[in-house]
Amino acid sequence: MSAPKGVPQPNKWKYGPAKDLRDKNTAFLKMRCQARFRGEPWKITFHEFDKIWDDNSWARKGPKGWNLCMSRIDPKKSWSKNNVHILTRSKNQLRINQLKLFKNKTVTDIIFKGKKFKNYHDMTEYYGISYQTARNWNRFNKYNKKSIGNSKDKKNKNGK
Fold first, then answer.
1. Which of 75, 5, 66, 82 is nearest to 35 (CA)?
2. Using alpha carbons only, what angle is made at residue 102 by residues 96 and 108, rounded to the nearest 5 degrees?
3. Cα–Cα distance between 34 and 12 in angstroms, integer?
4. Residue 60 and residue 25 share a domain
5. Which of 26, 87, 140, 160 has its CA 20 to 30 A from that of 116?
6. In 3-state terms, what secondary structure has residue 113?
7. For the ranges 8-22, 70-84, 88-102, 115-129, which has the lowest average pLDDT?
8. Residue 115 CB: number of other CB atoms within 10 A?
9. Which of 101, 108, 107, 112 is nearest to 137 (CA)?
10. Which residue, among 31, 34, 36, 65, has the nearest Cα to 48 in the 3D structure?
11. Residue 151 has pLDDT above 90, yes or no
12. pTM of the prediction?
């Protein structure tokens, strides 16, 4: 005999009455569908997805900048357990913007106060500043070097 209409039947659910597993499964299926729609290869199983998103990080998942999201380390490779990491949405957006900015350019290291950084994101992590502040510091640093160099060159050319 079947149960009356509208009564939940957790014994027939894929992951039973565990709400967090059902939510993770729904998120997993949505992410996999979105990746396939964009033509990105997806090689993560649900069990790998469940291990990547431990209970602590899953509780911090959400749409705000300070919430966590899953992103690929190398966007040119597939979604696999070795190519994904969990980070805040704001850090991920900075990373994506930087990748778009330097897509067709050769990226050189950023040197600030004698310290070498691969990108502005690393500089923001090291100094605990915003992305815009890091860019401004670097621009200001370049501007000062040019102006100092130019003023010395002018003095030498004029014989003073």
1. 75
2. 120
3. 27
4. yes
5. 87
6. coil
7. 8-22
8. 11
9. 112
10. 31
11. no
12. 0.58
